[in-house]
Structures are given as C-alpha cells and as structure tokens.
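Reply to dn_fold:

You asked what the input looked like. This is it:
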Amino acid sequence: MITIPDNIDSKYRFVILSALRARQIQAGSVPLLKEARHKATQIAQKEILQGLVKFRIPDQNGDQQEEVEQPEE
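and this is what came back:
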C-alpha cells in the first residue's frame, strides 16, 4: 500500500498528479529516477513520493487546473 505524502490532500489528487507526470515521461521527458525496468506510471508515482516533482494545487476559488511542472534538465 502506498502512503500518500502530507503535501497531497487526497489519494485522488495523487492519482491525477501521477498520471500527468507519467504522460510527460511518455512524451519524452527525462525520468528523474534511473529505473529502466518500470513503467512510466510507476516511475511517476515514485518521483512524487520522493518529492522530486514540483506541482501547484489551485485555490478553492481559482480557475487554475492542477499542473505538474516540467523538471529542469
């Protein structure tokens, strides 16, 4: 079982952030972890759990969507 980090308010948000990051990896972004045997979704989850991925969560009143920032290469 995966323990959700304190900076993420729900398991649903964790899933959404992981999916967004996995899409970036599949589109050609360099993974921040060197684990070639894992799928993009597993790598994305591990990156988020280890705090390697920066993200912004909008305010309750804001119109911004969740966004995973592209890591600097």
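Residues 17 and 49 are 11 Å apart (CA to CA).
Hope that clears it up.
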